[in-house]
């Protein structure tokens, strides 16, 4: 092998090493972004579950209040009807 061929191979190896280094850095950056996205998804999913629980609690409270109001209206109507009959 002559020196020119060795120099060419050395440049090729250097280029491959540099490309590998860049690819590795890019890969690490992409994994970092993936992990950040997964963390955000987990956080948002947790917040969603908490909000769903809160909505269900509010719904139950509203249903309870509506039932109490309906009972009060019924009692009031009964009392009013009784007074009208006298």
From TrEMBL:
Coiled-coil ranges from the UniProt annotation: 6-68
UniProt entry keywords in alphabetical sequence: Coiled coil
Top-rank taxon, per record: Bacteria
Full protein name: Uncharacterized protein
């Amino acid at each position: 092998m002559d020196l020119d061929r060795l120099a060419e191979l050395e440049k090729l190896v250097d280029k491959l090493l540099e490309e590998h280094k860049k690819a590795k850095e890019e890969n690490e950056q992409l994994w970092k972004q993936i992990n950040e996205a997964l963390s955000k998804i987990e956080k948002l999913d947790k917040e969603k579950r908490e909000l769903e629980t809160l909505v269900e609690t509010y719904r139950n409270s509203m249903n309870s209040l509506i039932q109490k109001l309906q009972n009060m209206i019924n009692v009031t109507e009964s009392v009013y009807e009784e007074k009208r009959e006298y």
